[in-house]
Specification:
This protein has about 120 residues and is mainly beta. It has one domain: Beta Barrel (Lipocalin), CATH 2.40.128.490. Helix content is about 0%, strand content about 55%. The chain has no helices and nine strands. It has an eight-stranded antiparallel β-barrel. It is globular, with a radius of gyration of 14 Å.
């Protein structure tokens, strides 16, 4: 597989959550699709990201801050969040573009902690 260097300009715009899979600390993966979940992520040309996800349990996670683009990862520098524990952190995401889709992978996840991972697939709006 050829490595592709992602450019900031490729991310600019609004993306809607279309797929979600989660692997727990014991290694069990559940592919949940976007069933009962909704979310948007917005990348601005001036280097800011805003994220909001709504889960089927009714909880909402949102944050915003600056972002950086690396070869195959994004870093979200959280300035404000609905979860106070995220403020001031750098959230690293493995990232790949698949046509009009952006796949972000987190390990460990924000919610699950050590040993967990999640893949979130976003469709360009």
């Amino acid at each position: 597989m050829q490595t592709h260097i992602m450019e900031q300009e490729q991310l600019i715009g609004t993306w809607r959550l279309v797929d979600f899979s989660y692997t727990d600390a014991s290694g069990h993966t559940s592919h949940q699709g976007a069933d009962g979940k909704d979310g948007l992520i917005i990348y601005s040309a001036d280097g800011y990201v805003a994220v909001a996800t709504h889960r089927k349990d009714g909880s909402l996670l949102s944050y915003f801050g600056r972002f950086e683009v690396g070869r195959d990862q994004l870093v979200h520098h959280v300035e404000m969040s609905s979860d106070d524990a995220l403020v001031g952190t750098a959230q690293h995401r493995a990232a790949r573009l698949e046509g009009a889709r952006l796949v972000l992978s987190a390990s460990p996840t924000i919610i699950g902690g050590p040993g967990t991972s999640a893949d979130l697939t976003w469709q360009r709006v």
